[in-house]
Structures are given as C-alpha cells and as structure tokens.
Write a structure and sequence with these properties.
alpha+beta, Multidrug efflux transporter AcrB transmembrane fold, Alpha-Beta Plaits, Multidrug efflux transporter AcrB TolC docking domain, DN and DC subdomains, 4-stranded antiparallel beta sheet, elongated
Length: 720
C-alpha cells in the first residue's frame, strides 16, 4: 500500500467528516433558532469562511493535506460561532418586541461588535504563536495554526459585515400568538422551545446564585481541576503522531552469519509459505540478499506485504497490529532465520518503520565485541519490560571474513604501492566503477569485476596480477596474506561514535512515549560508563518535542491574557476568563484517558484550539457583565444578567463544536487514529469546559471584579 493510497483514503474520510459536520452544525443552529431564514445566515458564514480559507491556502502555497483538512473540520465549529452570536442577538431584539429587522440588527450589533472583535483576536492569538515553532512539530502546527487563524479572521469580518446585512434582509420576527393568525410549524416550534428554554434559564440562574453563596465550592473545584489536570498530564501516554494503519507491513529476515544466498532463499520461501494464506493480505513481494536493516548481504532478506483496502478490513481482527501478531504466530516455528515484523511508518523519512529506533554508542573507543556484549545485555533487559513488545538488532560479529595484510616491503621492492595492490584486488573481487556507456539515449554504469569462477578461493589470488615498475605482471598473492577471522558485516557510526542500531515496538496498550521512558531507565541500569545511546528517526523528534510544546502553550496563554487585559483595562477580570481554561484542558485529558489515547500532536492542536474557544466563550459572558456593571447594576446583578442572556449563544457555540466533531470521535478506516485523537480530546474538553464555564465564570467575575474595584478603582476623567 503506497503512501498516496493512504493519503487518498484519509482525505476521503476527512472530506466525508467535513460534510457530516456541516450538516450537523446546521441542524443544531436550526433547533436553537427555530427558523429556516435564521439558519441560512450561519450556513452562509460557513461557506464564506471556507472559500476564504481555500483562497489563503492557495496563496500561501499550502497543499490540501490531512493537516489543513483537519483544520477545516474544526473551522466548521468555530467560524459559525460569530454568526450565531449575531443571529441570536438579533433574535433577542425581536423577542424584546422590536418588529423592524433593520433596527433589531443595528441595536444588536451595538452590543456585540466589540465582543466579536475581541474574541476573534483572542482566538487568533492562540494559533499564530504556534505557527513559529520549529522542527517536525512546527510543520504540523504551522499549517494547522495559520489555517485556523485565517478562517477565524474571515469569520469575524463576515460577522461584522455580511451576517448583519443578511439579518436585516431576511430575518423576520415570529408571529405573535395573540394576533389570531394561523401559526406555521416553525412558529409553534419556536414558542414551545422558548417556553422550555426560559424555564431552563430560570433554573440555570438559580444554580448560578447557589454558587454565588458558596464561593468556596468554586475555589475547591478550581484547585481540584488543576490538581487532576497535573496528574492526568503526567500519567497520560505520550507520542508524536499516532501509529496509523497504512496498509503495508515490512518484514526483515536475517539468517545466521555466513549463510549463503541459497540458504536465505530457502528461508524466505518457508516464510512466504507460512503467511501467503492470511486473508487480510492482498499481495506481497520478497527480496533475498538485501535486508532493510543490514543492507546488501547474502544472509539478509525482506518481505513487503500489502494489505487489502481499509473498507474490506472493517473488524478488529483485520487491523494491522492483529495481522502482525498473526504473522508472528505463523512463523514462530521457523528456525532458519530471525524475523522482525513492523508496520510502515506514519511519517516517511523518519526511519524504516513504526516503533522506536536508537543507536547504542561506544564513546570510549573500545572493542566492537565489547560494544556488542553491552548491546545484547541492553536488548535483553528491554525485552523484559512490559512496555516493550520486542527490541531487535541485526548486528553480529560472527560473520566469516578474511583480513588482508599487504607486505609493504615487498611492494616497495617491486616498485608498487599498497594502494596499487588493494585497487587491483578491489577491481577483481569488489567491482570498480570504470566509466559510463551511452546507448540508445540511456546511460549505463560500467563496472569491472572478475567472473565468479575466478574468485572462489585464496588460490585465485595467484591469477590476479598487478603491473610492477619494470612493466612485468606479478600475481597479487606475492604481496598479500589472508587470515580467516570473524567480524561484523558492516560498521555503523552515529555522531562519530561506533554504534549498533536497535529497533523495537512498544507493547500493546503502551505508547512510544512510555517505551522511550522505559529505554531511558534500562540504559541507566545496563550501560556502563563510556557507553551511551541516542535516539534516531521519528523517536529522536518525539523525545525532543516535549519542551517546545510547553513553551507554545505558555505563549498562547500569555497572549490571550494580555489581549484581555487591554479589553477590560484590568489585570483581575481577565483571570475570570483564564481560570475557566484548566477545566477544559482537564476534560480533554480525562476523555483521552478514558479512551486510552495518547497525548500526541493531533490532541495538542485540539488543546490549543480549546484554549482559544473556551476563552472566546467566557468573554461573551464577562464582557456583557462588565457592560452591565458600567450601567449601574451591582456586581452580582450584572453576573446573573450576563449568565441568563448569554446562555443560549454559549450552548449553541458548545453544541455546534461538540456535535460537529462527533464524526471524528467515531471515525474508522484510513487515518482513524488521528481523527479520534483530535475529536475525543476536543469534544471532552468542550463538554467539561462549557459545564464548568457556565457556573464558575460568573462567580469568578464577582470575585475579581470586586478585587478590581477595591484595589484599582477607576480613575475619574477630567471634565471640560
């Protein structure tokens, strides 16, 4: 299965999810607004934002890939928020008795324009810093972050221009039941819904007042959520990207050192016969004389196995890990070779396969046999850990070889150099590049090598000649001595040190992050002074990405806080918004724990968006409360009033995001693991964060607004 096949299938799944999200979001909007006319406006905002975002992708040179498509799926739930706020505010004016759509729209925009601008700036401030992150993680964050930021910016412009215009043109108040006119379905539904929702608002206000009187409950909940967040962050499995079912399996086959090619072919045939009737396998190819880990060697071989398309493998037993387990089961009785089976990596170019990759290094310049001994002990200890399914190396020092010793004195007497002797020997046995041959517009490399019948044993050296200074041809056997030894087939250096490559897989139920932690512990216990290790491939990227993520999160939170300080002209009131975020983050990690997911890049992008979305939602509440406080209400009255008025847009915002992302939570097929990681984390954070926000933020507003007025009272402006 090629990478393109996987990408095509994954993009198809994400596009399907995108369509499902649009339909679900429109349905949620209709339920809350009870009007087809009102529903059209958020739907139009989705289309406008998507078109604008596609234009940005084209201008920025971004491809339509999994990252940008994921961003577009999340955009559906975010860009509709601004339009929802506009439509809901206009509808609120209608409910207050205003009959003119124009006046209702202008009156509504006077109250929400500042909030829309601020919330959009806050949301963009979350994503823009993440776009400047370097490394492999930075590539993910950049495309995702810029796509989200641009989409939100376009959504804000739309909410300030097109959405109000459409509200004034097509929105109409619902028919009053007292007029005696025949009521339409939407009108009857509206009145029934409003009656139920008004009762909900009264109960909600009573709940908010209950928390007002028991502020210690809010404080306890806040401390508990932060403590639980810290515990969950520490105990949740970690990873860089989730291992996806790419539809392709690699098998490395190693026969005993010194095995001939015919022996390797026999072993490969036995392996092939063992796996050929596995029902999930569509096709396979094998190569003898070349292994993925040892390179070209007669004792190495490999199989490339292509599985059936994802839609033909819907069950749990059809997943790639189950197929790998079945391969190991069927090949367990093969004694002619050692097998290492692994899946194709999710990100190509960072190692040969999934799992982990590291190099054990000899930093003291010792003997290679000693390095192998310590590496063998290290691998044995790794295989005892529950986090490690298998650790493996193809390195061996028992390959039969000849040491070539050139007699320099004889060479000098004959008027030749040791280089001349070795060059001839290399030409006869190892093949030398001579020149190029151009034939029929194709370029061929010309290699010089003796026929195999002339290089079968040591006596063949007497039939290989080198030209001396006198012009005579002398057999090479006069100048070299061959000594039979055992040694390595190849030598590897990693960062200038002699090293041995070790590959492995985490055990079922464990992440690569937990495997990395186990490797670090085992290395401290087994590797003596003078010996160390370094990670390679995707494992190296994962091990070094943790600190960067924390920095990005911190920058995002600081940016949001500074913007809120400018909005409220206060350093206390923004804390009411910021302290709602830990609840959402805790919910995200809690759901990830319940689903058995790992904290990877997909989940982290969802967390970044969650910070912006929860802050944006909390601003709707605190901004309204601040405005009512300035109009003369008491702090408690302002908080209660804001809670009641903003309940509908907050619930609409949360539900559109949650329901819009449900297709990701229950994703299957190609790219399902990434979809689930993104969906579960975001949905869990929105559910817990919104519930906490509705009750915690009003109470926190009272606390911090009181502190603000006591410690930093507003300065009186000089009047002319």
């Amino acid at each position: 299965m090629s990478t393109k096949d996987f990408l095509d299938a994954s993009i198809h799944e994400v596009v399907k999810t995108l369509i499902e999200a649009i339909l679900l979001v429109i349905l949620v909007v209709y339920v809350f607004l009870q009007s087809v006319r009102s529903t059209i406006i958020p739907a139009v905002s989705i289309i406008v934002s998507l078109i604008g975002t596609f234009a940005f992708l084209y201008l920025a040179g971004f491809s339509l890939n999994l990252l940008t498509l994921f961003a577009l799926v999340l955009v559906i739930g975010t860009v509709v928020d601004d339009a929802i706020v506009v439509v809901e505010a206009v509808q609120a004016k209608f409910d207050e008795g205003e009959r003119s759509p124009y006046k209702a729209t202008t009156g509504a925009m006077d109250g929400i324009a500042a909030a829309i601008v601020t919330t959009s700036l806050v949301f963009m401030a979350v994503f823009i810093p993440s776009s400047f992150m370097g490394g492999t993680s930075g590539t993910f964050y950049m495309q995702f972050g810029l796509t989200m930021a641009v989409a939100v910016g376009i959504s804000a412009i739309n909410a300030l221009t097109l959405s109000p215009a459409l509200c004034a043109l097509i929105m109409t108040p619902h028919i009053d039941t007292t007029t005696g006119q025949k009521l339409s379905f939407s009108t009857r539904f509206h009145h029934a819904f409003e009656a139920s929702f008004n009762r909900l608002i009264l109960r909600y206000k009573n709940g908010v007042k209950w928390f007002f009187r028991r502020k210690w409950v809010v404080g306890t909940a806040l401390v508990a959520s932060m403590a639980l967040l810290a515990v969950l962050m520490k105990t949740t499995k970690t990873g860089l990207v989730p291992d996806e079912d790419m539809g392709c399996i690699f098998m490395n086959v190693t026969t005993p050192p010194g095995s001939s090619l015919s022996q390797t072919i026999k072993a490969m045939s036995e392996v092939e016969n063992s796996i050929k009737d596995i029902p999930q396998i569509m096709s396979y190819s094998n190569v003898s004389g070349y292994s993925m880990m040892g390179g070209q060697a007669p004792s190495g071989g490999m199989l490339i196995i292509r599985l059936k398309p994802w839609e033909e493998r819907p069950e749990k037993k059809d997943e790639i890990n189950a197929v790998i387990a079945e391969i190991y089961k069927r090949t367990a009785n093969i004694k002619l070779a050692k097998l290492f089976v692994f899946a194709q990596p999710t990100i190509m170019g960072y190692g040969m396969g999934s799992g982990f990759e590291l190099y054990v290094q000899d930093r003291a310049g010792g003997d290679i046999n000693t390095l192998q001994k310590y590496t063998t002990d290290f691998i044995a200890a790794l295989n005892q850990r529950p986090e490690i399914q298998m650790a493996y190396t193809s390195f061996d020092t028992k390959f039969p070889q000849y040491t070539v010793e050139v007699d320099a004195a004889r060479c000098q007497r004959a008027g030749i150099t040791t280089t001349d002797v070795l060059s001839v020997l290399s030409g006869f046995i190892g093949a030398n590049y001579s020149s190029n041959l151009n034939r029929f517009s194709k370029l061929y490399r010309v290699m010089v090598q003796a026929d195999k019948v002339y290089r079968l044993d040591k006596d063949a050296l007497n039939n290989m000649f080198v030209r001396t200074s006198s012009g005579e041809m002398a057999p090479i056997g006069q100048f070299v001595t061959l000594t039979k030894v055992y040694g390595t087939e190849t030598l590897t250096r990693f960062n200038l040190y002699n090293s041995i490559q070790v590959n492995g897989l985490p055990a079922d139920g464990y992440s690569t992050g937990e495997a990395i932690a186990a490797i670090e512990e085992v290395a401290k216990q087994t590797l003596p002074v003078g010996y160390g290790y370094e990670f390679g491939g995707i494992t190296r990227e994962e091990a070094g990405s943790g600190s960067n993520t924390i920095i990005i999160f911190a920058i995002c939170i600081i940016f949001v806080f500074l913007i809120l300080c400018a909005l409220y002209e206060s350093i206390f009131v923004p804390l009411a918004v910021m302290l709602s975020v830990p609840f959402g983050l805790m919910g995200s990690f809690l759901f990830a724990k319940m689903w058995g997911l790992e904290n990877n890049i997909y989940m982290q992008t969802g967390l970044i968006m969650l910070i912006g979305l929860l802050a944006k939602t909390a601003i709707l509440l605190t901004e309204y409360a601040s405005a009512r406080r300035r109009q003369g209400m008491t702090i408690a009255q302002a908080a209660v009033s804001a809670a009641g008025v903003r309940l509908r847009p907050i619930l609409m915002t949360a539900l559109t995001m949650i329901i819009g992302l449900l297709p990701l939570v229950f994703a299957s097929g190609a790219g399902a693991n990434g979809n689930i990681s993104l969906g579960v984390g975001t949905v869990g954070g929105m559910i817990v964060g919104t519930l906490a926000l509705l009750f915690v933020v009003p109470t926190l507003f009272i606390v911090f607004q009181t502190l603000q007025e006591k410690l930093m009272p507003a300065r009186k402006r000089d009047e002319d």
